[in-house]
Design goal:
Length: 315
């Protein structure tokens, strides 16, 4: 194993330590129906909870219908023909999705998507899932991010995919909720601006400014779902001080933020130095009403060295 690969593992593990009930899958509140002209997508500056909840239902419906049922009609119904793709292994366009699904469902006829948590803000929806391609296997940790247009059609997609390991050092799986209340559903919407402010302040202070004092934003118990990191915030200030000394040219660029209630997802590009391709990472934080970060989930994927099938980058 190369030193570069070990360094990237270090970034994924140590930074995830910082970045932030019984396990229950996300259950849509209603079956997604055809987009209604009255339910245009909310502008990010003027939240529209009705449109955001509709977009959440559509995103889950599309994923399940495509990957579990092989229903290509749902692509025509909800995805734009000029769909922009950021997964480096897929071309742009609705027809490319349909071609991919034909091959995928033939190879994995028993695929189950296992949606765990869904949040929406403005025109963006984040879906955190545990797709299991073959029964009896652990599957992957996947974060899909969708952008909806004003007609309620999916216009753009980003994702991060990570294999689920056999064990974790913290005893938590990569998907459940440990902090109370033990629910995978987002908290009340009045918390959204507060949670977003806390999570982004923590992220920027620690990873952009490289300031270890950011650990003040974490609770002592700080429940961790990155499989390589233990629970708790004790000792993190010293660890991060040493880490930033070891990697002084670290660059973390925050690309997009999606917040709803007490959950905040931050999509970012992590690099050890300007020449490094780096990693695509989505960190998901749960923020308590006291203003401290309680819990963290993430998915981490190396930016591939092979030429992508689209010109859009992963970000």
């Amino acid at each position: 194993m190369s030193n570069t690969h070990l360094s990237r593992r270090t970034v994924a593990a140590l930074l995830a330590t910082a970045t932030i009930g019984s396990m229950a899958g996300f259950v849509p509140t209603a079956t997604a129906s055809a987009p209604s002209p009255s339910l245009t997508v909310a502008d990010s500056r003027q939240p529209n909870p009705q449109a955001e909840e509709r977009n959440k239902r559509v995103a889950v419906h599309v994923l399940r219908q495509l990957f579990e049922e092989g229903n290509l009609k749902v692509a025509d119904q909800y995805i734009r023909a000029d769909y922009i793709q950021h997964n480096p292994m897929a071309p742009d366009g609705r027809d490319a999705i349909k071609n991919f699904i034909r091959d995928w469902t033939a190879q994995f006829p028993d695929h189950v998507y296992n949606v765990k948590r869904v949040i929406a803000q403005g025109d963006l929806v984040m879906v955190h899932s545990n797709p299991v391609y073959t029964p009896g296997t652990r599957g992957s940790s996947v974060v899909d991010i969708f952008r909806f247009d004003r007609k309620g059609m999916i216009a753009e997609h980003w994702d991060v995919v990570q294999d689920v390991p056999a064990t974790t050092v913290n005893g938590n799986d990569m998907f459940g909720t440990v902090s109370r209340p033990r629910t995978n559903q987002p908290g009340p919407r009045w918390m959204t601006p507060f949670s977003q402010k806390v999570a982004t302040a923590y992220f920027d202070t620690l990873l952009v400014d490289k300031n270890p004092d950011a650990v003040r934003y974490l609770t002592p118990e700080y429940y961790q779902h990155n499989p390589a990191i233990p629970n708790g915030s004790a000792g993190l200030r010293e660890q991060f001080t040493n880490f930033f000394q070891q990697f002084p040219n670290l660059i973390v660029e925050r690309k997009r933020v999606i917040a709803q209630g007490d959950l905040v997802a931050i999509h970012a590009h992590y690099r050890l130095n300007p020449e490094d391709r780096g990693q695509a990472v989505v960190d998901i934080f749960r923020v308590g009403k006291h203003g401290k970060i309680l819990e963290h989930w993430d998915s981490v994927q190396d930016v591939p060295s092979t030429p992508p099938l689209n010109d859009n980058t992963m970000f």
